[in-house]
Amino acid sequence: MTIDIAGAHISGASNSALFVIDNGAEVSITDSNRKYSFDYDLNVFQSITDNFSGITNTGKAIEIKNDGKLILDTVNVVSTTDTAIVVGEDNNVSSGTLETVEVIIQGKESAIQVYSNSKVDVKQEGFLIGEDNAVIAGKEGGTTDIKIEGAEIFAHSQTPNYLSCGIYHPENGSLTLDGTRIISSNGIGILSRSGSILIQDAEITTEGTGSGKVATVNNLDDHYAICLDLRDKYPGYDNSIIEIYGGIFVTESNVPIISMIAPDGVETNDRIVVTGGTYASPIDEDFLGVGCTLIEEDGI
Length: 300
Hints:
By secondary structure, the chain is mostly beta strands. Helix content is 0%, strand content 42%. It has strands spanning 2-4, 9-12, 19-21, 26-30, 54-57, 62-64, 68-73, 76-79, 85-87, 96-101, 104-107, 112-114, 119-123, 127-130, 136-137, 145-149, 152-155, 164-169, 174-184, 187-192, 196-206, 212-213, 219-220, 226-229, 241-244, 247-250, 258-261, 272-274, 278-279. The mean pLDDT is 93.
């Protein structure tokens, strides 16, 4: 089934999602006459719903579950009080698939929440915005498959003592970034607590300094670009790995770009492996891959 919004603004004020893709259904939603005004200012969270076509709800805008599949093509999706799109259900049984092309997805909480064994593929100039939670948020216990290609991710946090987070990955799944930009205005770029992450090419910038939380009670000491935190020992944590092949990574002065936090007795060798990239300050040489060295060029 294909639905063409054709320049309309479909809006609701409901706790229930406006669209539910369920029971193996496959749906494509497109907008052949898409409208939006988008000139994003990182420092001011702003709604994109002025001069807008797309899907808006006070609660979740879209839910995908029980093997449902949704393809979004040049569509705007907004939740004004909740997460915009939820893929799967919080039971590690019901899963879904989301594929997007040139979307803008904005949530008061997250843009996309991913549960269970769900799959998400975001590509071709997508904009993902979260006001007060991780922009893309997983859940421990799942085995998700997430690919982000060519998207821009803007993260904010407005809750005291909590950090903004571009991508939160506590599940024993896989995450691949290629041609992706993450800006976290007052927190972390990527926080992993399990699973495997492959960064082929990304630009990750974090702003601000100081400690705070993401999802759990454990404090994170600073605004890292990338952090692997194994203290919660979520399923699959003992096999977790982050591989970085390239990109540009920037934090505030004196804030470590890459950090690993592990309790006593947890193996840490080769959990973070860096073989390429440009870093605004030196990274820990323990993270360097075999045969790799740090080279200073033009002060970087």
